[in-house]
Amino acid sequence: MAHREARPGRLVVGLAALATAVLYGGDAAGSWHTRWYTALPLLAAALALAAVVGIVGHAARRRRPGRSESKDSTGAPTTTSGSQAMR
Q1: What pLDDT digit, counting tens, does each position of 46-82 carry?
Q2: Counting runs of H as helices and runs of E as strands, what totals does the chain give?
Q3: Where is the segment annotated Disordered (predicted)?
Q4: In 10 A of CB 1, how many CB atoms?
């Protein structure tokens, strides 16, 4: 199974979309009344929060020590013509 990168911003937007669906579903079922414009501020706030969460998550992934460059590189430029030993 391939490892997938965590995307917490997408989780925030997905949960907000699900909450919006539940609100309008309850309105359609007659359980409560939801105003027509409720989705606009809810989803706008979710997008703003998702942006913040995504930026913080990205910064946390960049600073993780396991993600740093290889210590094995000697600073020599890579070549596109194959191995140096084959010449």
Answers
A1: 999 999 999 998 888 887 676 555 555 566 666 666 5
A2: 2, 0
A3: 60-87
A4: 3
